[in-house]
Amino acid sequence: QVQLVESGGGLVQAGTALRLSCAVSGASFAIRTMGWFRQAPGKQRELVAAITSGGTTNYADSVKGRFTISRENAKKTVYLQMNSLKLEDTGVYYCNAYPVYSNNNVPLWGQGTQVTVHS
Question: 21, 32, 52, 106: which is deepest, by most CB within 10 A?
Answer without folding.
Answer: 32
